[in-house]
Amino acid sequence: DTSNGKIKKTLNIAIIGGGLVGSMAALHLGKKGHQIHLYEYREDIRKAQLAKGRSINLSLSARGRVALAEVGLEEELLQHGIPMYGRMLHDLNGNMTFVPYDRNTKQCIYSVGRKKLNEILLNTAEKYTNIHFNFNRKLISARFREGQMEFKDPITNELHKATADLVIGCDGAYSAVRKNMLSTPGFNFSQSYIQHGYLELCIPALDGQFAMPHNYLHIWPRGEFMMIALPNQDKTWTVTLFMPFKKFEDLKSACDLVQFFDENFPDAIPLIGEKRLISDFFSLKPQHLISIKCYPYHISSKVLLLGDAAHAMVPFYGQGMNAGFEDCTILSRILDNPNVQIADVLKSFSECRHQDAHAICDLAMYNYIEMRDLVRTRKFRIRKALDEFLHKLMPLKWIPLYNSVTFTTMPYRKCLENRNWQDKVLTRTFATILTFTGCFVIVYLYNIFFALGNRN
Ligand SMILES: Cc1cc2nc3c(=O)[nH]c(=O)nc-3n(C[C@H](O)[C@H](O)[C@H](O)COP(=O)(O)OP(=O)(O)OC[C@H]3O[C@@H](n4cnc5c(N)ncnc54)[C@H](O)[C@@H]3O)c2cc1C
Ligand SMILES: COc1ccc2c(c1)CN(c1nc(C(=O)N(C)c3cc(Cl)c(F)cc3C(=O)O)c(Cl)s1)C2
Fold first, then answer.
1. Which run of H or of E encompasses 86?
2. For residue 368, what are the contacts with CB-CB under 8 A and spacing of at least 6?
3. What is the tens place of the pLDDT at every residue in 427-455?
């Protein structure tokens, strides 16, 4: 039993939330032989129609792939994913500029469908006799110290009770498990909504083919707002428009909308289709984007938060799901230590993971602020060229930030430290060059005037 904190052979673990991270956690823990009871608020998404208004596809990169490989699903997912070798930037005249993720290694990230990914994770988990699904179960209250939970069936309104040795909250940014932890002394929490909202549009297939070159992440960077498009398996594109809510409100009529697109995204109108643009835009409300930090992620040996429930971030790095999947990898590795007490497992997870999670939340927020300059201005291009040159010169010493976050499993906090070190080196080098140039110019001018004086 866990009374003395020793892990008994198998734990009775309740996972709250059957989204991407909950189903990934069920696989990582189920694989170790624990009894897993997964409780999901919604119905079985494998039977449901696609939920409109959610980010329908996502970018899968290195960290997410490691978690998938751990449960033997990496290859299957890459089959269902579409490789993207870089950004395709759209300017105001409809010209496209390709900016590769990595000129040398042709590295790529994958566009994967959220529903497909969730289905594959659930189907795989279902094969484990020690993993049990409970759909239509919304956690409404809990006494975690006693391991007691109460659920409501949103369809029948019936109440259901359950107990567990350990409760793992994978119930997303608005987590009920985290809400319940707020009253625990020492539990720190902060959240911030950003001014931008997002809304999904769709670029249909054109004669059964992709309407744009499809091995790229398409971006329309327009300073204060932007659009991004990821390809889907069915040759359509999911386009996400990010804009301040104020701007969404200003677009009141179809005419306002078409004029706005004509001014800012002229090439997107024929791709989306004017009729579909108008109907999609006005049929959905722009969604909010929230950034959440908390610490610790656990309470003694009874509760742990993973994924967005622990560290929701704004999507401007495409890392939310990848970070949540990496949570599962890290928890699994800590659990592999023999004779480790569950209370110590949760404690060390919180200690090492919160710094990484806070770092990627800050990096994503930084990208949101820099977004107007992101991948567009000369500053970004110069820095990118410099990064590539120095990375080629010292491949192990100089790893550019974007590459380390997306294409390595370097701890996020190390990626951030690296970046700060690089900024310092570049600032100092630039200052030194400026000083030398300045001295040179002064001496040069002095000589000219001196020579001139002599001649007269
Ligand atoms: C616009 C946008 C674009 C994004 N793009 C990317 C990207 O390109 N790459 C990337 O890696 N990430 C991306 N993300 C982030 C990614 O979507 C999230 O990080 C990821 O979905 C988090 O998974 P999760 O399982 O922790 O939470 P969720 O996906 O939110 O799942 C939570 C689950 O818990 C259930 N639940 C909630 N409350 C309860 C309750 N009380 N009881 C029982 N069940 C409950 C919900 O029904 C849901 O199924 C993006 C996010 C947005 C908004
Ligand atoms: C489904 O909705 C969404 C919404 C936002 C994103 C994604 C999917 C996937 N995203 C990725 N971002 C990076 C990245 O590192 N940066 C710095 C970028 C950041 C922005 Cl905002 C951008 F537009 C391009 C890049 C880029 O470099 O391509 C990746 Cl690499 S993937 C953002």
1. strand 86-90
2. 194, 196, 314, 316
3. 888 888 888 889 989 988 888 888 877 77
Specify the amino acid at residue 324: G
Residue to mutate, 96, 317, 379, ligand 2, most ligand atoms under 8 Å from C-beta? 317
Residue type at 44 in one-letter notation: D
Q: Residue 316 C-alpha to ligand 2 middle, in angstroms?
A: 5
The closest alpha carbon to 402, from 167, 103, 7, belongs to: 103
CB atoms within 10 A of CB 159: 11
- Kindly give the number of the ligand 2 atom that is closest to the alpha carbon of 87: 28
Residues 358, 311: Cα–Cα separation, whole Å = 7
Residue owning tokens 């932890």: 181
Say how many Å lie between the CA of residue 38 and the centre of ligand 2: 31
Ligand 2 center to residue 400 CA distance, Å? 16
Distance of CA 58 from the midpoint of ligand 2 (Å):
10
Answer yes or no: is the C-beta of 170 below 6 A from any ligand 1 atom.
yes
pTM beyond 0.90: the answer is yes
**Is 302 strand, coil or helix?**
coil
Provide CB contacts within 8 A for 106, sequence distance 6+: 85, 100
Residue 237, classed as helix, strand or coil, is strand
- Please indicate whether residue 41, judged by its CB atom, sits closer than 6 Å to ligand 1: yes
- Please report the pLDDT score of residue 1 as a whole number: 46
Give dist(CA 266, CA 360) in Å, integer: 34
CA 225 to CA 434: how far, in whole Å?
A: 35
Burial grade of 107 (CB within 10 A; 0-12, 13-18, 19 or more): middle
Write the single-letter amino acid at 412. Answer: Y
Residue 7 has pLDDT above 80, yes or no: no
Residues 6+ away with beta carbon under 8 Å from 217: 59, 84, 86, 87, 88, 109, 111, 228, 229, 230
> Order of strands, edge to edge, in the sheet holding 138-143?
138-143, 148-152, 159-163
Tens of pLDDT, residues 154-192: 999 999 999 999 999 999 999 999 999 999 999 999 999
What's CA 355's distance to the chain center, in Å? 16
Smallest-distance ligand from the CA of 289: 1
Does residue 17 have its Cβ closer than 6 Å to ligand 1? yes
Which-ligand-closest: CA of 59?
Answer: 1
Q: Whose structure tokens read 């300017």?
A: 91
Q: How far is the CA of 394 from the centre of ligand 2 (A)?
A: 26
